[in-house]
Amino acid sequence: MRLVGAVTQGSGAINEDGLGYLGNAEDVSAAWIFDGVTGINGQNFLGGGSDAAWLVAKAHDHLKALASLDLPLREILSKLVQTLIADFKTATKDLDLPEDYDPPAACLTIVKRYRETWQALRLGDSCLLARGGDGAHLSVAASPNNAFDHWLSAEALKRRDAGMLDVKELLAEFRPQLMQGRKLRNSPSGYGILEASPSATEFAEYFDLGTPREILLCTDGYFRAVDYYGLHSEQSLLEASLASGGVDSVLDSIHSVEASDPACVKYLRFKPADDATAVALRKRV
Question: What is the C-alpha separation between 280 and 247, in angstroms, rounded?
Answer without folding.
Answer: 8
